[in-house]
Amino acid sequence: MLRRRLLTLAIALAAALVLLSPGSGALPSQQPTLAQLVGQHLLVRMKGSTPSASFLGRIKRGEIGGVVLFQENTRGTGGVKGLIAKLQTAARTGGQLPLLIAVDQEGGGVKRLPGPPTEAPSKMNGALTAYAQGLATGRYLHGLGIGLDLAPVLDVPLSPRAFIASRAFSSKKTVVASRGTAFADGLVAGGVGASVKHFPGLGRLLQSTDYHPGRIDAGRSALARDLFPFRTAIDAGVPAVMVGTAIYPAYGSKLPAACSPGIVNRLLRQTLGFQGVILSDDLNTAGVRPLLPFPESAVRAVNAGVDMIYVSGVDANGSDAVGRQAYAALLSATRQGDISRSQLQDSYDRVLALKRQYAGAS
Predict the structure, then answer these.
(1) What are the domain boundaries of the chain?
(2) Alpha-carbon span 6 to 10, nearest angstrom
(3) Is the pLDDT of residue 183 over 60?
């Protein structure tokens, strides 16, 4: 509880310092524009290894808050560092905040870049090993200019048939909590933010929510097992949480978790007391679209309390277009009063605090 209170204080102080700092992309004498408030909510995927003029233009205008890198993005002649430099130069040229550059670097079968972790989560045979792997990963990503690892996975698979089983630390909640939190702590010590996922847990599903709608019909007492690792990581001060897109009737919603106020705001913010940045899992997937058309899902997620919505699509399916659509939908909804400016500002402040720590915002 003490660590949670200290984290809350640190986030509030960081947000305040951002607004006062002369080096910040948000000018200290000005409030962010509506376009900037909306833009910081967008975590998008870039198509190919060279950013298009259109993509760079969106960055310069402040329509993108962060970029998730995949293997296809890192094959250009300038490498990862060169690509990130181009993206950050566009943000700086436009007078915007630095981008939050993110990557899925879990270890094992999900690792976008060739460096650490050198072990799959299931092979990290203790908290000390997990911490060391997280530390090495954090230092490696930080050296490339990456500020956020979309890891570790804190899902607790119910059986070996669960789709997430090959990516999990263990099938035991206490082991997942201990080793997952240690890996996250190592990332932070290495200079990179950790984003634990996929809240409130996908360990009961046999199929990935990237390709199929997911529904978890367990009751609240059973779901408490799945929440345990997230509670542990939150109490330890993890800076970001990614909310998944399965449906949980026990939590009172027929919507994907990332679009459900009952899960994002009440369960994660209020019940568990998480004060950091909340991310959505990808909203442009087969797990979401049959239930909520895109980009309505983006508006729903922001209204549910998500700070940064991840919009991409499997295999970069329409990644540039869906980012533009999500931005336009959020901007329109705000202008029409369907999203409050104060809500956008609260998320903006949390993202600013994260960027001060992990993206070089000063």
Answers:
(1) 2-358
(2) 6
(3) yes
Q: Which residue has the tokens 């909520």?
A: 292
CA Rg value for the chain: 19
Whether 41 is catalytic is no
* CATH entry, 2-358, from 3.20.20.300, 3.30.420.310, 3.40.30.10, 3.20.20.190: 3.20.20.300
Least confident of 34-43, 307-316, 331-340: 307-316
**Rounded Cα–Cα distance for residues 352 and 346 (Å):** 10
Q: Which amino acid is at 182?
A: A
Q: What is the DSSP string of 178-224?
A: HHHHHHHHHHHHTT-EEEEEEET--TT-SS-TTTS--B----HHHHH
pLDDT digits (tens, 9 = 90+) for 302-319: 999 999 999 987 765 556
Active site (annotated) includes residue 315 = no
Tell me if 132 sits within 8 A of 186, measured CB to CB: yes
Query: Exactly one of 281, 282, 320, 349 is catalytic; which is it?
Result: 281
Residue 247 pairs in a beta bridge with 215
pLDDT level of residue 212 (50, 70, 90 thresholds): very high
Model confidence at 26: pLDDT above 60? no
CA-to-CA distance for 51 and 335, rounded, in angstroms? 30
Mean pLDDT, the chain, integer: 91
- The token duo for 176 is 């997942």
Angle at which helix 341-358 crosses helix 2-20, to 10 degrees, equals 100
Lowest mean pLDDT among 15-19, 49-53, 320-324, 346-350: 15-19
